Structure formats: structure tokens, C-alpha cells
Amino acid sequence: MIEYALVPAETRHVEELARTIADADRAEVWAAMHMPAHEAIALSVAGSREPMAGLADGRVVCMFGVAQVTLLSAVGIPWLLGSRDLPQHRVRFLRESHRYIRRIALQFDLLVNYCRALHVRAVRWIEWLGFQMHPAEPFGPDRALFHRFDMRTR
Description:
Layout: E1 4-8, H1 11-20, H2 23-33, H3 37-46, E2 48-56, E3 59-68, E4 75-82, H4 90-105, E5 110-116, H5 120-128, E6 132-133, E7 137-139, E8 144-152
Parallel strand pairs: 4-5
Antiparallel strand pairs: 1-2, 2-3, 3-4, 5-8, 6-8, 7-8
């Protein structure tokens, strides 16, 4: 039986996920910010309230959190980056991600971010979570197509 855990994100989790990040997530980070995975993960963790690592048998399968636009803002920017192994844990991942979104929805009036249009699996998951997916538009330094997605919580 696999042992799952959600733990506060640490530097060692950032380093592990940077080595094992899924190709689609690596490509999305590059298209959005022209930033190597390690740097993007570290920046996301540093800018988030209570960033977390999802572990399966002690290995990082994803990291996630919510950045706050400003300290006084009620707008949250949810993010998640996964390892190549994340699809092997999809049932647990879907269950836990749904719980997490319900919990953070209580803390913000609006959740908003962008998802690369080519990242079809992520687009489907984000819609499944209940976010509104907007038509793809150019975004990032290369003007790649990204969907803005959002959820009004109040």
C-alpha cells in the first residue's frame, strides 16, 4: 500500500521536483516565464501562503500553493506543478485537489491563474475542479496560447 502525505514545502522538495517535473509542466513554466523549472518552483513556493508538497512513499509527486496578489487582496493565484509520476496517483490526486480548492475558496474572493492551452490534461483537471476556463490568448514572453481560468468564491 502506498503511503501518501501532504507536508509543508521544503527546499529538498523543490530540488526533487525540479529533477522529476513532468515535461508538460516544464514546458508550461518555460512558455509562461522563460524560467528553468527549479527557479520557477522556488519562486512559486516563496510567493505562496502555506506551500505544500504531495508525497507518495516519501517521493514528491507534486507541489502546490496559492500566492496572494497583495497582502490586502482577496485574490489568490493557485498553482500546482507535478512530477512525471503524478498520473500514477490520479485518484488520490483528484480527491485531494478537490478538497484543497474547497478549502482555499474560503480564504479568497477570487482565484485566478493561466494554463498553457497545449497542456490538455491540466485544462481538463482545472475545469473539473470548477474553474471557468476562458478562450486561449497569447501570454508570456513568446506569446504562447494560454487560458485564463478563474473561480469567484463569494
